[in-house]
Specification:
Blueprint (H helix, E strand, L loop, with lengths): L1 H23 L1 H14 L5 H26 L19 E3 L7 H7 E2 L4 E3 L6 E3 L5 E4 L12 E4 L4 E13 L6 E9 L6 E3 L2 E4 L4 H5 L10 E8 L3 E11 L6 E6 L14 E8 L4 E6 L2 E7 L6 E2 L7 E3 L14 E3 L16 E3 L16 E3 L11 H4 L6 E3 L16 E3 L11 E3 L11 E3 L16 E10 L5 E8 L2 H28 L24 H19 L2 H36 L2 H16 L7 H16 L9
This protein binds 2-acetamido-2-deoxy-beta-D-glucopyranose (4 copies).
The site of one 2-acetamido-2-deoxy-beta-D-glucopyranose has 4 residues, from strand 1.
Length: 634
């Protein structure tokens, strides 16, 4: 039973596979058919055979190209980075871990448990599991491992202790950069980073969110419809309460976590000398400004010098009314407030055929008391009322009333006119006093603690979110070189795959497959829904594996048979008609008919222009270098 369903699905899948390729080639089919149709007006059995053979050849070509497409798209190997990093820079490309065990020795997940007060059970505070994975939807370089989340819709946390904590201050810059790639649609989830003060691995295993305030928060977050932005914020300790406060960028740029599944690059540059900062997405500056600019951060780094006195009260005699009713005005005598707005029209007369004795509504004649009706229990039965049909035949029935018209004597309620209030003193506002909590921070770019930990902590929006190529350091040039080397190349590669998919000539992107299980899978408790979706992935994978050469040929042959049959009947009809009309037409008319053929053939040669692809990726590059241009904030 299972085998049969399996076979059926595989068969449908490969039929689809072939049909798609042939459809993509349909313009060329059409051209060939019309060419042949026009150039030969001799109807012979041979011509028909030629045509059928051509169609066969095309169908087989379609089948074969489907086979080509389903083989692995070639991906290049990423060469050596060739970027010399300063010893205090941090760089993580996840290439040095061969399995999850090794990954989790450096990158630590909190094991903190939470007690569920309703069930008494203890569960992990951050149940999401992490592993290493290569992008499977749009390929990256060969063996390009990325950090990835296996669990969708759960609290996720992973962090790494830096061997050399980074101090930001004394004119040093903070430069953070990393890649994010989505492989599934995400409704609500983050991919942002927190930079924490130094901790050791044991502390990270006990990390519980609010127990350690971050120094910097940066990165994309999207949760429809609540947020969709690249967060940027710094922590500052309030000198009066001694509590940490997150100062967050207002009007932050949008997250860019929508659209295609290509990789994105997020960069933060903060200069502790000038207090300038810059946020770049894919190398382009999307926000630039100065930490000290008023209104840019909330709460501001600078508290106001004067604040309203909250204890002040509005004096009793303070008159805030700008206008008052004129106390001297009186209602004129002619003004009768009791006159109604509408009165009956005296000129209206009752139509002759109006019958006041005939009822307007009558019991519905087709209704009868139901059998189950019990007068004692249900009360007396009354038929529902309907309009009396006899009334429609005359002007009307029931009591007649004249129509209503506007009353010329109507005045409405009288109000005295408004006049300026002589006692008006303006709107009251509490007086300003010196801010008792005034604090001045002219160098918010100096972080309070060194950065000792890189941490991802957010709500996981979809599984298989990829994070890669993390840079943390003082140097913009290093981040740019790394971005040039990794992100730009990866993005170009993925753009080419998308173009190839759109044009359909350069092979095909593989269908979504279950990610390669290159690593020990730690499981986790999947619910039914997740298991079903896993099963769906599994099936898909099977089909793409099984649509092997033989099956494609099989599918191709079946399609060819169908095509041959349809084309046989189609051509028969067309040739019958054409032969009939051609006989009656003169020769030069035939020559005219040939002309559109040429342009149709030309339109056949649509293919990817390699020059153009290069030019496009070139523009990526230039974008990356244009970054210096500072855009005005807002
Ligand atoms: C990976 O290991 C190599 C060899 O030990 C080392 O040179 C390189 O810096 C490591 N890369 C990262 C990102 O840690
Ligand atoms: C992970 O890789 C290391 C080094 O290759 C190996 O010693 C270890 O056994 C592997 N662990 C698992 C669970 O495969
Ligand atoms: C980690 O740091 C904590 C203090 O934050 C300390 O109590 C603990 O002993 C440290 N553990 C190790 C293994 O160094
Ligand atoms: C990044 O690439 C662009 C274009 O090739 C180049 O002009 C720029 O100098 C590169 N930047 C760095 C820091 O290497």
């Amino acid at each position: 039973m299972h085998m049969y369903t399996n076979f059926l699905f595989t068969f449908l899948f490969m039929l689809w596979n072939n049909a798609r390729t042939i459809f993509q080639r349909l313009p060329s089919c059409k051209t060939i058919i019309s060419t042949l149709k026009v150039s030969k007006n001799v109807i012979s059995r041979n011509a028909m055979v030629t045509k059928a053979t051509l169609l066969c050849a095309m169908a087989i070509a379609g089948g074969v190209s489907a086979v080509e497409g389903s083989s692995n798209t070639e991906v290049p190997v990423l060469g050596p980075l060739g970027v010399k990093l300063s010893p205090d820079s941090f760089w993580e490309d996840f290439q040095n871990y061969s399995n999850t065990t090794e990954l989790l020795q450096k990158w630590k997940v909190s094991r903190l448990g939470l007690r569920d007060s309703s069930t008494g059970e203890t569960r992990l505070m951050y149940p999401a599991t992490w592993t290493l994975q290569e992008p499977y939807l749009l390929k990256s370089f060969k063996n390009d491992k990325c950090l990835t989340i296996e669990t969708p819709h759960s609290a996720a946390m992973i962090g790494r202790v830096l061997e050399n904590p980074l101090t930001i201050g004394d004119g040093k810059k903070l430069v953070v950069q990393y890649e994010v790639q989505l492989q599934r649609n995400m409704e609500c989830g983050g991919a942002f980073m927190k930079l924490l003060p130094p901790m050791n691995g044991t502390d990270l295993h006990r990390y519980g969110g609010s127990n350690v305030p971050f120094e910097v928060i940066f990165g994309p977050d999207k949760c429809h419809p609540y947020t969709n932005e690249v967060h940027f914020g710094l922590k500052k300790t309030n000198p009066f309460t001694n509590k940490p406060e997150a100062k967050l960028l207002t009007n932050a740029p949008i997250s860019s976590l929508d659209g295609d599944e290509t990789v994105r690059l997020y960069t933060l540059i903060m200069d502790s000398e000038s207090q300038d900062f810059e946020i770049r997405v894919n190398g382009k500056v999307v926000k630039a400004g100065n930490l000290l600019t008023e209104g840019l951060f909330n709460p501001p780094f600078h508290s106001p010098k004067k604040v309203p006195d909250l204890k002040a009260k509005k004096p009793e005699n303070w008159d805030e009314r700008e206008f008052i009713p004129d106390p001297k005005a009186t209602k004129p005598d002619y003004w009768d407030e009791n006159e109604p707005l509408m009165i009956p029209d005296d000129t209206d007369v009752k139509p002759d055929s109006w019958d006041e004795n005939m009822p307007e509504y009558i019991p519905e004649p087709s209704r009868f008391k139901p059998k189950w009706w019990n007068n004692n229990r249900d009360g007396e039965w009354v038929a529902p009322l309907v309009r009396n049909p006899q009334c429609f035949q005359i002007a009307g029935c029931g009591p007649w009333q004249p129509r209503m018209v506007e009353n010329p004597d109507y005045w409405g309620p009288w109000n005295p006119p408004m006049v300026e209030n002589p006692k008006y003193r303006g709107k009251w506002a509490p007086p300003l006093i010196d801010n008792p909590e005034y604090s001045e921070d002219l160098k918010p770019g100096n972080l309070e603690n060194p950065i000792g930990v890189i941490l991802f902590e957010f709500w996981s929006g979809s599984k298989d979110l990829l994070i890669d190529n993390l840079y943390l350091g003082h140097y913009v040039e290093e981040a740019e070189s790394l971005g040039n080397k990794t992100f730009i190349s990866k993005k170009r590669l993925q753009n080419q795959q998308i173009e190839a998919e759109i044009i359909g000539h350069r092979g095909r992107i593989e269908h979504p497959k279950k990610p390669p299980t290159m690593l020990d899978y730690t499981g986790g408790n999947l619910n039914l829904f997740d298991r079903l979706s896993e099963y769906g992935d599994c099936l898909l994978e099977k089909f793409s594996e099984q649509s092997s050469f033989v099956q494609n040929i099989l599918g191709g042959t079946i399609l060819v048979l169908i095509l041959m049959l349809t084309s046989y009947f189609y051509l028969k009809v067309v040739y019958f008609q054409q032969g009939y009309s051609d006989g009656a037409k003169s020769k030069d008319k035939n020559e005219k008919k040939q002309q559109p053929k040429k342009s149709e053939v030309e339109s056949l040669s649509v293919s990817v222009d390699p020059e153009q692809v290069d030019a496009d990726s070139q523009s990526d590059k230039t974008d990356f270098t244009k970054r210096r241009v500072k855009q005005p904030v807002k």
